[in-house]
Write a structure and sequence with these properties.
The protein is an alpha/beta fold. The chain is built from six helices and ten strands.
Length: about 290
Amino acid sequence: MNEKLTSYLNSVFAPYDGVKSVTELKSDLLFDLEERYRELKAEGKDDETAFALTIDSIGDIEQTVIEVANLSRSLQRQVVTNLKASNLPQSDFAGVTAHKGNFSSSVLQGSDFTNADLAGSSFHSSNVRDAIFDGANLTDCNFSTLDLANGRFHKSILVRTNFSKSWLAGAKFLNTRLMDVNLSMAYLRETTFQNCIFDGADFSKSDLGGMCFDGQTFIGVKFDKAGLHEVSFKGATLRNVSFQGFPLSKKYYRAIKTINFEGAVMDKLTYASLKGLEADLSKVTVR
């Protein structure tokens, strides 16, 4: 009867030969089925009845095999990308999937990452000047302490992305939502933010001098101790936004007075905070 059970399992598992996890499942299952068959025979069942009851005891084995095989193949496709300390300027990475990839300490200047899925990847300390990230999934990516000058982020997915301490002069963020993005201590002069929504973003201690945020939306954003000289928020919407400054810092107060809030809409708490810093709120709407 061992041969009959083996033949049955071979027919079920045949389409998945070579898939390691399925082969292991087949071996374990054969052992269990042989033990069950012996138990039924010991109870006085004839060969055919014992075989039928043994097979019935494992339920829908074909569906189980399919699920195990699909999971195994999916895991095999998730190859960890390690390109640390690589010299890859002008590379074509458009459309690639590289979850938790390591691009740290690399030269990637001018590379194309359009529509790539880079969730969880690290570019720490790399040269990524002039790189294109249009439509890329950059959730949980680390872009800290690197050169991202003139980089482009059009409709990129930016969730918990870390740009802290990076050089972003000339970078362009277009038509995207920055959710819980860390932009603290970054150089942002000449950076362009156009038609963006900032939800939980952190600009603390960053140099924003001369930045234009006109018409954009800020929800739960921090500008604490940031360089804000002549920043423009004309027509912007600000909800629960923080402008905490350096205690007794006349320079910070002077910078706040140069901010243009003409036509901005803000909640009462944001308004009160800015009023306490002597910002010009004469043309602001409070809602």
